[in-house]
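ok here's NAD(P)-dependent dehydrogenase, short-chain alcohol dehydrogenase family:
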Amino acid sequence: MTPALAERFSLDGRTALVTGASGALGARFTETLAGAGAAVVLAARRTGPMEALRDRLTAQGARAAVVAMDVTDAASVDAALAQAEAALGPIDLIVNNSGIAEPAASLDQPDADWNRVFAINVDGARRLSIAAVRRLVALGRPGSIVNVASILGLRQGAGVTAYAASKAALVQMTRQHALEWARHGIRVNALAPGYIETGINHDFFATDAGQAQIRRIPQRRLGLPEELDGALLLLASDAGSFITGSVLVVDGGHLVSPL
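and the structure:
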């Protein structure tokens, strides 16, 4: 990579906040952004699971902080942003990674579970994005938002109607926010992973049902968390400066396979 190209992907001088940073993918996103030079804020409801990662990043020379944030609570979001800004300065890169699934057949799913999925996956991303963008607009600073969607926001799957519908809503919200906020120099895009192997889903994919799911992926394997790195950095950095309102799919070809 030439120095000029490397500079385009660099996040030096940027400050990123990643929600759901206590989970496997959130932790990976945080490490990737820090590795590209960003100061990073790890955000989740429980701070304990994130402290070891913060300490490791700090030992490696990164600037990192941990904040408690409940994306379903406006006061929590505002307080966490204020704490993050006090520690590391204005936040100009948001990765909306918090999400839950609550899998169930539609006829069996309680309203409370459906509402909770939307409260976190859609309303939470909206709440944080708006709070962060208001701060950036007031400062006259550009920024970038990456919403972590899913291929299930673009296709169907059995027993995941709430999750799929929420991710479809997140995809459309990404496009709407990109349209509205382009005039402020703020780009908004979505990263749509397919099936990525993590510690949480490892046991399922070892079962017969899980293996059958893998056989539906044209590459006949699960993705690895590090295979999302390039897509994330493209959307987050100046390398993607003319990309907004887009959905970048990383799924081993799953979307082009038959249902």
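+1. The longest strand covers residues 186-193.
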